[in-house]
């Protein structure tokens, strides 16, 4: 059976996702109770499929596509771009460890999982 690639998300769907993140940032600037915030941070920073992991995957795949589809040999500018994507992917993925901080905060505050 042939492999069927998933449909590409639309730019509108990407804007909606980033808008949701902006809404979360705006909410956090209102200084809500930590018990209300931790359940929002848990899926955001999930160690398997939270934003750091997803962003790292997106950047890593983008770097790969640039390298695959660019004219060879790569110009200095394209080489710098691919390196920037690769480094940013690693940095974003490294943030996944924040899920442990959310778990520690939940333990310290007694905040329930929702």
- The share of residues in helices is 55-70%
Task: Outline the low-pLDDT stretches.
Answer: none
Strand proportion, as a percent range, falls in: under 5%
Class by SSE composition:
mainly alpha
Counted by DSSP, the helix tally is 5
Number of strands: 0
Give the N-to-C terminal Cα separation: 40 Å
The major pleated sheet works out as: none
Describe this structure in words.
With 114 residues, this protein is mainly alpha-helical. Helices cover 69% and strands 0% of the residues. The protein is built from five helices and no strands. The chain has helices spanning 11-28, 34-44, 51-69, 76-94, 98-109. The longest helix has 19 residues, at 51-69. 7% of the residues are buried. The mean pLDDT is 90.
Sum up the structure in keywords.
mainly alpha; 114 residues
What does the secondary structure layout of this molecule look like, with pairings?
Layout: H1 11-28, H2 34-44, H3 51-69, H4 76-94, H5 98-109
Provide a compact summary of the structure.
The chain has 114 residues and is mainly alpha-helical.
